Structure formats: structure tokens, C-alpha cells
């Protein structure tokens, strides 16, 4: 939804999509953590990575809910956008490490 609703054309839908995107990331990372912890195939250190990812998402959710409104100022918008990008980079890292763990299963 975020990618299909540019902020300059569909602001309300973009905001809702972004809000729920990160909430879903949080839920999914918690579920992955639990699954990995209960699995005998993947080391628990990968669950810890996902738990850290979940924690950073939760921090971002608090920033987006209780931090400065992006409509207030350019600085507030910059804080929101940069924190979104940091979370997405952490997501990429989490997926990379999960892929490495799954790749070790083939060996």
C-alpha cells in the first residue's frame, strides 16, 4: 500500500498504509522469533536478531505515534522519514541473516 500510494497524491491512504505496515512488521517479527525459538533447525541467535528487530520497530511505532508530527515542520518530517528508512535497513539486515540461517540448513 505504501508503494502504491505516493504521499503527494494519496496522503491519507499513504499514512494508513505506512502505519499498518510497521505494525504488521512488528507482529511478523515476533512470530518469526517464536517460531525460530521453538525450532530445532535454526539457532536461537537468529531469534534474538528478530527480537531486536521487533524492538526497533516498536521504538519506531512510538516515534511515529508520539513523536513530532511530520506536518509540523521540515525537521519533524525529516525525523519521521529517516526513522522509517533506518527500520527498513534493519529489516533488510534481518532478512539477510535469516536467509543465511536457512542456507546453512542445506549444507
Describe it for me?
The chain is mainly α. Helices cover 79% and strands 0% of the residues. It contains 3 helices and no strands. Helix 1 runs antiparallel to helix 2 (44-66) and helix 2 packs antiparallel against helix 3 (74-106). The longest helix has 33 residues, at 74-106. 15% of the residues are buried.
Keywords:
107 residues, mainly alpha, 0% strand, elongated
Write the layout of secondary structure elements.
Layout: H1 11-38, H2 44-66, H3 74-106
Helix pairs in contact: 1-2, 2-3
Global mean pLDDT: 85
Bulk shape: elongated
From the alpha-carbon coordinates, what is the Rg to the nearest angstrom? Answer: 16 Å
Largest sheet: none
**How many strands in all?**
0
How far is it from the N-terminal to the C-terminal residue, by CA?
37 Å
Kindly state the percentage of residues in helix: over 70%
Overall SS class: mainly alpha
- Number of H- or I-type helical stretches: 3
Order of helices and strands: HHH
Instruction: Outline the low-pLDDT stretches.
Output: none
| Proportion of beta-strand residues | under 5%
Outline of the structure:
The protein is built from three helices and no strands.
Amino acid at each position: 500500500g505504501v508503494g502504491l500510494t505516493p504521499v503527494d497524491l494519496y496522503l491519507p491512504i499513504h499514512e494508513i498504509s505506512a502505519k499498518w505496515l510497521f505494525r504488521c512488521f512488528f507482529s511478523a517479527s515476533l512470530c518469526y522469533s517464536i517460531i525460530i525459538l521453538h525450532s530445532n533447525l535454526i539457532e536461537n541467535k537468529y531469534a534474538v536478531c528478530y527480537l531486536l528487530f521487533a524492538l526497533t520497530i516498536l521504538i519506531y511505532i512510538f516515534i511515529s505515534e508520539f513523536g513530532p508530527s511530520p506536518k509540523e515542520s521540515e525537521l519533524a518530517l525529516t525525523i519521521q522519514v529517516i526513522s522509517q528508512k533506518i527500520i527498513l535497513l534493519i529489516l533488510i539486515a534481518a532478512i539477510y541473516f535469516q536467509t543465511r540461517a536457512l542456507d546453512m540448513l542445506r549444507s
